[in-house]
Design brief:
The protein is mainly α. It contains 4 helices and 2 strands; from the N terminus they run ααβαβα. It is 49% helix and 11% strand. The chain has a two-stranded parallel ribbon with strand order 1-2.
Length: 110
């Protein structure tokens, strides 16, 4: 009741049309080389919208682009919305990654 269905449609459309390789002659590895961040890919075994195989392909392209990437597949029966559920393994992985980011930021600041 608190989520407008039109927002969902617009978000889905944006995701369908988002193509970071478009400006690099459809070369995703070349596009990813321009990034200046670290990547954390978390996928869920039953997510049909963003299946683990797609995340694994993106991780492989990030590795080819020499970008730092972590990739984890979480076994969960909750489909695409699994990230909204406090699945212990998901919380553990995300928490550890965020703690690492905080430590690195603190090291840069000092």
């Amino acid at each position: 009741r608190s989520f407008d269905a039109n927002t969902y449609l617009l978000m889905t459309r944006a995701l369908d049309f988002f193509d970071p390789a478009r400006s690099c002659d459809d070369d995703l590895v070349r596009a990813l080389r321009q990034s200046r961040c670290r990547f954390m890919l978390i996928s869920f075994t039953t997510d049909w919208r963003f299946p683990p195989q797609r995340s694994q392909g993106i991780a492989a392209d990030l590795i080819r682009a020499h970008r730092p990437v972590s990739n984890v597949v979480i076994d969960a029966p909750n489909g695409h919305d699994a990230f909204l559920i406090p699945i212990p393994r998901y919380l553990e992985v995300l928490g550890a990654y965020l703690q690492q980011v905080i430590r690195e930021a603190e090291n840069v600041a000092t």
